[in-house]
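explain this:
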Amino acid sequence: WLALVCVWGVQGQAPSPDPDTYWVDQVIDHFGSDHRTFKERVLVFDKYYKKGGPIFFCPGGEADVRGGYDHNGLMFELGKEVGAFMLFPEHRFYGETLPFGPVDSYKKNNIQYLQIEQAIEDYIKVLEWAVITFGIPAESPVIAFGGSYPGELVTFMRQSHPEWIDGGVASSAPLLYHQGLVPGGGFFKVVTSDFGQKDPGCPDLVRSAFNLINEKAKSVAGRAEITKKLGLCSPLEEGEAALRLLTLWIENGFADLGMENYPYPLYGLPGFPMLAACDVMKSHDDLIVALGQATGVSYNTTNLTCFNITEEYYPCADITGCGGGVGDPDAMSWDYQSCTELVSHVDTNNVTDMFPSAPYNFTAIVNYCQATWGVTPQPKKIPNKFPYEKLTHIIYSNGKLDPWWPGGILPEICPKNVETHCLFIDLSAHHFDLRGTDPLDPPAVTEAREQEKKIIKGWLNKFAGEKRQARF
């Protein structure tokens, strides 16, 4: 059943220049008595650097740091213009920076140090290390760039260490989700809107397919039919838990298509993959087959013969997905963070979205987190510690195709000061503005990048005219 959905085209955009890799010594606990150390992976690109130029800094997020490095073409384009030193540290407990290896890092006495405040202190130590190691003037301006969770980290670092972070771009940073200020259904409402952008009838086809699946799942023969038509590697089991896992796997596939809804082929996806998925959904008379094929636009980027749900989806505290399949370290780390400090109010309602209704249930999340990690989520901890409203020298950008935009800082709630800027960008998916220039970029994205470059250059000119003190 997977024949029609395979690898689409080639990756858009030229690759980023190769970085140099360093390993920086870090202490596991910056605030307490546990003095064990680990090595943090840091990528450096200094070919554009000119003495006296700024430091462009991208805090690593919930994946291998090379992903963020390759995604930040805006940093490289502007960095070349202004002679910037480029610095990309990897987040503790992600990528190759697993403090105690892929097994022991997830023991309770170790994973407890996967905290935002600890990661921020790692990053400050990396900045200190870079200034000393490469002979960069200690008063050099530092501009931070980040998309999604790294975009949030940009704001947190600007708040907690303004002596280091002089300004930043926080793209697709869903800060309001953690405050519980987003109305229910916001994320998947955008996913559904994206899917119906070309043909408003496509979401109704998905709703109908789910209705068929829910009915057929009641019988042995029906489950066998679902397994065959969706192209699953393993038989769909009986019960609500198995059906819920299947639903989450499908939702996660569409969520990824919404976030990566770029106009050019990338990572095995076609250009504007949501539109392609809608076309696939309409290409079959059998709705269950169609839903499997449409979901396959997301998952089948390497010519799979069947879908292995446990390899492709990690059921976790974040229903938008935690990354890889069961046992993937990055997925486990994001699950832990979703169970502690990064709690997002995301659900489905089958009215404004096309997925089976599953209202947000904080009690269920608490029960899951306590059973899985022995922790209780603290949804108000980060919003209370890092309120965004008083920041200056910050750009909040969000894309209108990005499912996370309902949790972003939009122009209508932008803090009222001259050095805070809020952009809401047409035809822009998840932190699309941070990507490099491409001929297929929509005009609104190109305009947003130019605006961001102009703002940052203005900051740098302002800083150059100030008497700045060395940081140490």
Q: What stands out?
A: Confidence is low (pLDDT under 50) at residues 1-10. The chain is about 40% helix and 10% strand. The first strand starts at residue 20 and ends at 27. The beta strands are 20-27, 37-45, 55-57, 85-89, 142-147, 167-171, 394-399, 420-425.
